[in-house]
């Protein structure tokens, strides 16, 4: 269970909305101006991948800063217990209350085939997290995480790890998004044994390697992912806006390395544009 909770934290997905302004292909951006004495850096991660190698330009940014700030404080000793408290549906709801008997059987078969267990024993978990349990099956390799690698660097450098929001903030998103919409995505995955999901995630990994943050946003508008495409205010926009004053506060205190899901970077309500509107200068950093 401890591994499962740690994994679910990593796959609190970062998604996005249609972007009004094309940005350069880069997942690393330098933050300057607006009274900052020293530059900070903004890095777009992908939460699960086959290769989370930290590139040289990112290493240099980590060396030039004195703290790491992720979406949440992932070295919080209470994170596991908080995750446990927030992963279940409210009001005693269960998956069988959200889908037809036929669709429930399809999901149960998917879990038995891929997880070696019936969904019946965990059917009170929010459907998003049921889907997330299957994410390692989307990869044809051992799973790696940029967040884990960034935390290792922070530890090696004796630096603090902080968060832009709390685990409670992230978990609340999946109460605000209707459970039924989350269940629709799970059922769709079950009906083709995750074939479409695997194809889509493979494309996303390729786009990430190219650092095409604009294309990542376009992919996240895929209508086959109902809980993403139809609820981007909760998943992305509102969170981005809440992050800006916190980014400003951290960067003012000391040069900071910010690591957030790459889906948060681009777009009219993306972190890059919002920081520019707040008076900061953001410049793409390339190898």
Q: Which descriptors would you attach to this protein?
A:
287 residues, alpha/beta, 6-stranded mixed sheet, 6 strands, globular, disordered N terminus
Structure overview:
With 287 residues, the protein is an alpha/beta fold. Helices cover 47% and strands 10% of the residues. The chain has 13 helices and six strands. It has helices at residues 2-10, 56-63, 79-86, 101-115, 127-133, 146-156, 167-176, 179-191, 195-209, 213-219, 226-229, 232-253, 271-277; strands at residues 28-32, 40-45, 67-70, 160-163, 256-261, 281-284. The protein has a six-stranded mixed beta sheet with strand order 4-3-5-2-1-6, sandwiched between helices. The chain starts with a helix and ends with a strand.
Q: Could you name the ranges where pLDDT drops below 50 across 5 or more consecutive residues?
A: 2-9, 12-20
- How far apart are the termini? 40 Å
Tally of domains:
1
Number of DSSP strand runs: 6
The gross shape turns out to be globular
Largest sheet: 6 strands, mixed
Q: In summary, what is this structure?
A:
The protein has 287 residues and is an alpha/beta fold.
List the helices and strands and how they pair.
Blueprint (H helix, E strand, L loop, with lengths): L1 H9 L17 E5 L7 E6 L10 H8 L3 E4 L8 H8 L14 H15 L11 H7 L12 H11 L3 E4 L3 H10 L2 H13 L3 H15 L3 H7 L6 H4 L2 H22 L2 E6 L9 H7 L3 E4 L3
Parallel strand pairs: 2-5, 3-4, 3-5
Antiparallel strand pairs: 1-2, 1-6
Helix pairs in contact: 3-7, 4-8, 5-8, 9-10
